[in-house]
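Progress report, Aim 2. The chain analyzed during this reporting quarter is listed below.
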Amino acid sequence: MDYFILLTVSGIAIGVIYGLIGMGYALIFKATSVVNFAHGEIMMLISYMAFSIASSWTLPFWGLLLVCVFISAIVGLVIERVFIRPMLGQDVFSTVMVTIGLAVMIRAVVVLIWGADPLLLPTDIGDSGVEFGLVFLYTSQLYAIGLLAFCVLGMWVFLRFSRMGVAMRATAARETTALLMGINVTHVYAIAWAIAAVIAGISGVLLGTIYGLGPDLWTQGLRAFPAVILGGLDSVFGAAISGILIGVLENLSEGYIGQGLKEISGFLVILVVLMIRPYGLFGTPEIERV
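Predicted structure tokens for the chain:
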């Protein structure tokens, strides 16, 4: 039982990161119907930027996070304006291919600027933590849990009550109708990419603090993708919840079945979910009238 508790808690600790990353995937898809395969690379780029900032200036963790949030929003806006907006009106497949090309480019840029050696993101929280009985959680892991809760609450308030959130939901429901109602769809797309980049930046700072940096950090974005499928590609909140489920499942499968299953257990879940509920646990099924 003690072993089960340890595996579950450590799975939740990484699962909240998956949930944050998954929220970025789902937000982009909800607003633009495009799967952003460069989301993990954007997260990695911002985490390396955070390393450069933390190495140049002495900032507390929250100060570094706020600076990275600002930088992330700019990165998201630039990517949307330079790479995505010219693809408006093109088929979805072409836009997805652009995100794949962008992902490869970011990986190369990160290695070119920062090198391929592993790095440690210097923050003031260090290895401090809190012990709960048999379980020890680092401060950074507790921050991750709190930040996921904050982002979920913030996105719920934004999408439900703000004018831009309502416009984003309307655009996601039917883009043509949104245009006829006077909604600036390009502006909605830009805001969606900026918010998704901010969420990616928060995830990158947390990952860099907990696990360190490396040129393979982008794979965390790929490992979080099953959470998006499980929750539903168009469900921001479903991705957050499913990220925790995937994190726990990964740990339990490796702990009880065997090493190596941690990397593939999430994708096995995808296969099962796509066969039973192709739209995910919390996604919206598409209904076409014929």
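The chain has one domain: 2-276. The mean pLDDT is 86. These observations will guide the mutagenesis work planned for the next reporting period.
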